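RECORD TYPE: inverse folding
INPUT: structure tokens
STRUCTURE:
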């Protein structure tokens, strides 16, 4: 079904209001509900799941150091709005509608991190095998940045997120607030999502790939999914009327599988000031910005010379794109007159200090293969180090130690690799031959290691690990011990075992 572009204005998510707020802590309640919402003027209302019955959910705004308690409540009906594959992870024995919320990029104790098996059903009537607590607590003791929250329930994350369980979460600090970056109505979160629809407005999501064998018990592995339309803040291909001045956009790729390569049709510069873990050292000027699933970019766009012009934010699909693919468009900006006088915002040349984690303090180097495999029915799977979710924990960093994790991608495509608990730094990438390996299984490098891209030289929690490359990151595992996860953030991969537990152990633990 064909939808007209740029006929709906860009929505801005509501700011989440706390039930209670004191100086150093706040308490929120969020209900996950089923509801319908208009996602495009010509599309009948879409049945969705959302936090506080909104899609995307409300945006949290917290101060650094403010403890935010959130009671995430499941008020969803008993039927999933998308077909659930119960042939994995013993899901047949579990309730279908279960949720658990994860605050992506946050440094949080394990019991508030949204462990995939810490799920719960309506009114907490039933809980998962490792259920933790009803009220989550986020210390927000980390750099000011853009986080996002989303569902993380075991084996159905792709479906719960696709149904609409996503939202933005902003941590602010004094230093940044004193910087005169564009703020107020000139600071706008842009949550990028891709979805497909049936003519009646309902969400379209495949139940099985075209080439799946009908003999399988439940042939519904969807190896990746790209929606046919692009939504920003919950509207399909919206437009935004803006003033000729600087804007700050906090861009979040909240899509299941899709990677974006964003650019403006007039080649207008994109000034990136922040990444997943907050401000970069200095602004980086780009003509094209790549965002893998779950990656965020804090960007400044200066429209001051563009009064009266119309710009389009585009998505480069590469040469292989099908002619009917409409997802090369993202949204439109219409630059109007100035409303509020002069633009006094400033972008300093030096944004923040970032100390490089030191290689000489490294306690462990983990070589981790991203590799193709099969499940018990012969269906293709992608695995981390050839292990499935239920295999024993192998990654056990000690508290307060620094480790290097090396992602050796022997599959044919890029996987965005995410670790919970930590913000890491990217060390380098080195290409190797995908067709021949040394006798001991080590790779044959085909070129030197290259440093991360300029806009990757800040704190990251999700990073592209391209095919045929060794991508190395360095992280310090602190300040909490306990059970966390790491995974590919392509949700269709994550649900089918491209996710592993890891456990931060005490200094003297075995
Ligand atoms: Cu954005 Cu483990 O998640
Ligand atoms: Cu996360
Ligand atoms: Cu993947």
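DESIGNED SEQUENCE:
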């Amino acid at each position: 079904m064909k939808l007209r572009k740029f006929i709906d204005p860009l929505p801005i998510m509501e700011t989440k209001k706390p039930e209670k707020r004191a100086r150093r802590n706040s308490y929120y309640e969020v209900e996950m509900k089923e509801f319908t919402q208009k996602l495009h003027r010509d599309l009948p209302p879409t049945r969705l799941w959302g936090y506080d019955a909104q899609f995307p959910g409300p945006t949290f705004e917290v101060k650094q150091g403010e403890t935010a308690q959130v009671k995430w409540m499941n008020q969803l009906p008993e039927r999933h709005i998308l077909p659930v594959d119960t042939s994995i992870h013993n899901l047949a024995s579990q309730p279908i509608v279960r949720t658990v919320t994860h605050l992506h990029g946050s440094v949080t104790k394990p019991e508030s991190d949204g462990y995939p098996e810490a799920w719960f059903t309506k009114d907490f009537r039933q809980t998962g095998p490792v259920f933790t607590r009803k009220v989550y607590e986020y210390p927000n003791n980390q750099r000011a940045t853009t986080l996002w929250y989303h569902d993380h329930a075991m084996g159905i994350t792709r479906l719960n997120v696709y149904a609409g369980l996503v939202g933005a979460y902003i941590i602010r600090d004094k230093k940044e607030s004193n910087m005169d970056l564009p703020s107020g109505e000139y600071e706008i979160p842009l949550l990028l999502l891709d979805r497909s629809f049936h003519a009646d407005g309902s969400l379209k999501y495949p139940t099985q790939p075209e080439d799946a064998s009908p003999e399988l018990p439940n042939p519904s592995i969807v190896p990746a999914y790209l929606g046919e339309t692009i939504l920003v803040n919950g509207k399909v291909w919206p437009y935004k009327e803006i003033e000729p001045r600087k804007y700050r956009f906090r861009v979040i790729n909240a899509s299941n599988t899709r990677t974006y390569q964003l650019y403006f049709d007039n080649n207008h510069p994109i000034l990136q000031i922040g990444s997943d873990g907050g401000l970069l050292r200095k602004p980086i000027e780009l003509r094209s910005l790549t965002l893998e699933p779950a990656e965020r970019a804090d960007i400044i766009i200066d429209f001051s010379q563009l009064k009266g012009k119309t710009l389009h934010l585009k998505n480069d699909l590469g040469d292989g794109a099908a002619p009917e693919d409409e997802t090369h468009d993202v949204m439109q900006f219409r630059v109007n007159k100035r409303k509020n006088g002069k633009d006094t915002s400033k972008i300093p040349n030096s944004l923040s200090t970032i100390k490089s984690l030191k290689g000489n303090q490294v306690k462990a180097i983990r070589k981790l293969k991203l590799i193709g495999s099969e499940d018990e029915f012969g269906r293709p799977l992608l695995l981390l180090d050839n292990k499935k979710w239920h295999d024993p924990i192998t990654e056990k960093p000690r508290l307060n130690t620094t480790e290097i994790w090396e992602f050796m991608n022997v599959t044919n495509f890029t996987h965005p690799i995410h670790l919970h608990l930590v913000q890491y730094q990217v060390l380098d990438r080195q290409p190797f031959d995908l067709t021949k390996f040394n006798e001991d299984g080590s790779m044959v490098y085909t070129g030197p290691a290259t440093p991360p891209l300029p806009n990757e030289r800040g704190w990251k929690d999700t990073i592209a690990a391209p095919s045929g490359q060794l991508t190395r990151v360095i992280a310090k595992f602190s300040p909490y011990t306990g059970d966390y996860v790491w995974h590919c953030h392509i949700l269709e991969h994550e649900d089918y075992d491209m996710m592993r537990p890891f456990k931060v152990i005490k200094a003297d633990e075995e």
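NOTES: Residues 102, 104, 150, 152, 294, 418, 420, 485, 487, 489 surround CU-O-CU linkage (ligand 1) (CB under 6 Å).
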